[in-house]
Structure formats: C-alpha cells, structure tokens
Write the structure tokens for this entry.
Amino acid sequence: MFEQESFDTFKNNTELCGENFYPMENREIIKNIAEHLVNQDISKLPAGLFSGKMGICVSLFVSSKALNDSSIQEKAESLLGEIIRECEEKMMANDISLETGLSGIALGIAYLAENKYVQADLDDVLKDFDDNIFRWIAFKSKEELANSSNSLYGMLVYLLYRIQLYPNENHEAREIQQELIILLINMLEQINDQTGYTQLSYEPRIFDITNYKLPVYLYIIAAVYQQYFYNYKLDRIIERLDFTVRSSFPALAAHRVLLLSGLRLFGSVFEEQIDVLERSIDRERMLREGFKDKSIGLNNGLSGLLALSMFDNNMQDFSGLILKKIQSSSSLPVIEEERYLPNTLTGLAGVALVLSIYELNSETP
C-alpha cells in the first residue's frame, strides 16, 4: 500500500500530480466554484438532482456553510424556492427517478432538512413526493418494473435514506416504505436471477460510481440489513451473491477500491476476496494512471473517490493524497464558463459539494 507523502514531496512529484501544478486550498476552490455557480443562469435547467437545480442547490447550501458566506446561502434558498414551485410539474410528468425526478429532489430536501440547512417537517414536506413514488410503484406491472431497473436502484437509495430519519419504528409511513423496499429488493433479485447477475457484474470502461452496479447493490443490501426488517431474506441474497463477488476482479484499480468499500460492509463474509483486492491495488499508480489532470468530478473522477474515503474508515489515510491531486488540477485556478456546465454528478457543483463536506468534517473536533 502506498503511504502518504509530505506536501513538499507530493508537490515535487510532477508525474503524479501532472505537469502543471497549481496548489489551491480547499476554501479557495470552493469559493471559486460557488461564485461561478451563483453567476450562472440556471433558470432553464431541469429541477433534478444529478444535472439540475436540486444538485446545485445542495452544493451551494453546503458551500455556504463551509465558507460562512450568507450571499451564497441566499442564492441556495432562492433556488430551493424555484425547485419547490416546479415540483408539481415533476409529479404530473410522473418522473420518479433519482437522476432527474422526484426521488432525487426528495432526497435533496431530506438531506438539507436532516443537516439543518433548512427547517422543515419532512413528513409534511415530502408527503406528496412519497405518495407519488408509492403510486408509481403500485401501478407498475412486474414487467414494467423489470424494465426500469436503474430507477429501482435510485428509489431504493431515497427510501433507505428516508427510512433512517424516522425516530419511531412503528411510524405508519415507515412501515409503508419498508414494504416498498422489500418489493424493490425482490424485483432486483428477480432481474439478477433471470440475467445471471450479468447486470451486476458489468464493469464500465471508465471509473463510474453510479453505473458499476455491484458496489451500489452491496451498499443497498447492507443498508437494508441494518434496518433489521428483512434479514432472513437478505441472508439468502448474500449467499447468492457469493459467486458473483468471488468471480469479480475489476480491470480498473479505482473500481476495485469501490468494490472493496462495499464488501467491507459485510465484515468477514467476503474476507478472502477483500484480501485479494487489497493486495492488487497500488494507490500511487492508480492516481497517476487512472485519473487525468482534469478528472475531478463526482461520478467519474477524484471527488467521487474522496467522497468514498470519507465513508470508509479503511481509506482515511488515502484521502490526503486524493485531495492534493484534486488541488493540483489545472481546471481549478481559472474556471472557463463555456467549458463547465453547472452539473453536480459530473461537473464542478459536485466537486464543491465534496470539498465542502470534507472541509466541514475537518473542522469537527
């Protein structure tokens, strides 16, 4: 494993950091991106989370806290108001996806309320969202659900985040969402069984957090398991996953890191495969060869890897290296408006979001 270097050593390692090294502090990067986003005309963007207003709104709220900047907060609040006004249109359009629809918008609102960026009664604010998601699932045939597998993953992410916010396990809405989670897990397992788990095994050719489904599925199964309402079935699902996991050795080192993070959630269940993957990863080489100078986005770049390091204790000693690689990117000193769309999943809004969370976590005693 590659041990963390001092800043001076890292700075001089031009092969790892790129030929043009422009070291910037976190707060400077966040400020540059936030100001860029504030000055953009995003009124015509869709309301969604991944490439629309909701993602930018979350990024601005978190950036404003990291920078203690009320003007950025005001822009975020104004943007949230626009999103809420547009929600009726989303409900009428019957778009419930995490990427562009109701699940993603609801997830963003739930995150902001849970982390005290806004004051809201989530049961009241999200009731219409939850009702629309429930109806969408209830009125779909098994065949229609099977053809919407990507949407199923997204809805599960939202429902699992939402269900963890209920203090009372006997809450009626929680019980309904448990039933929805069970239904969606069963549907995904049916799809996996029918396809021989090929959808889970498929590895994108570039680093891709959302489309490499095996780690995503492992995170979902582990999150459901922690809720203790479907474990008897999940035990069987984990057993069926065993062959897929043991036969998976991603070509990209960054995907191996992503898969490792999911496998560690299951303790010693996949201990042998964890050991194989850990021994295969050269962190220095992965950063040097796997991520180009401008590969700093959330879904396909270093910000996604940095976010992963904040959730996986085994990667905490790696986060410093990732951060310095981001800080060295030639994309950041001067942001050229025509080249950077205000996008959260692949654009600079996601970079600012991750760096702001990192900054806030660093300030926590």
Observations:
- The two ends are 28 Å apart (CA to CA).
- The CA atoms of residues 112 and 330 lie 31 Å apart.
- The chain is about 65% helix and 0% strand.
- The first helix runs from residue 7 to 12.
